[in-house]
Design brief:
By secondary structure, this protein is of the alpha+beta class. It folds into 2 domains: 71 residues; 56 residues, OB fold (Dihydrolipoamide Acetyltransferase, E2P), CATH 2.40.50. The chain has 4 helices and 5 strands. It has a 5-stranded mixed beta barrel with strand order 1-2-3-5-4. Helix 2 crosses helix 4 and helix 3 runs antiparallel to helix 4. The longest helix has 44 residues. It starts with 11 loop residues before the first helix and ends with a helix. Keywords: Membrane, Transmembrane, Transmembrane helix.
């Protein structure tokens, strides 16, 4: 009995096709990875200006804002300690009489909410970007556990934001 093994030689066309398929798979992973990174970066950049002031007001005057009038796009009120009338831009309605901790941009007269609710609210664009990136990670990269973790973290932060905001 002979134990001769025969190796079948693949054709040039088949080897080229397998190489091209590998290159396409690599290109898909690179493209989807860059897309997810771009989405998260855009969300972070959109959040940064407001989040920076909410997390560390620095030289901005800080105090409390007592709301006097509210509309769908924001509220106005008296800022203490200066007594100036400032505007708090927010899509979530408040009632006149509420008092919030804020920092005020003196050149625009707009208030930014500080504290944990203000910080979470300022990072909302990043949270939305993480939700969108979770879809790209799960669907495009086939990294289901990572996508589930990313989406769950973003949903938890969104829920906490609205629980603290109201």
């Amino acid at each position: 009995m002979s134990t001769t093994t025969r190796t079948a030689r693949r054709s040039v066309a088949r080897r080229a096709g397998e190489s091209a398929f590998g290159v396409l798979l690599l290109a898909r992973y690179l493209f989807m990875g860059l897309l997810a990174l771009l989405i998260v970066t855009a969300g972070a950049l959109a959040s940064w200006d407001t989040a920076r002031d909410a997390m560390s007001p620095g030289d901005l005057p800080q105090g409390s804002l007592t709301l006097s009038a509210c509309a769908d796009d924001g509220c106005t009120g008296v800022f203490e300690p200066s007594g100036a009338t400032v505007r708090l831009v927010q899509p979530i309605g408040r009632e006149p009489g509420d008092t919030l901790d804020v920092a005020v941009h003196q050149d625009t007269g707009e208030a930014i909410r500080t504290g944990l609710p203000g910080v979470l609210y300022s990072w909302l664009p990043l949270m939305g970007a993480l939700l969108l990136a979770a879809i790209v990670i799960g669907g495009g990269l086939r990294m289901y556990r990572t996508a589930t973790g990313t989406g769950a973290a973003a949903l938890l932060a969104l829920g906490l934001t609205f629980a603290l905001w109201i």
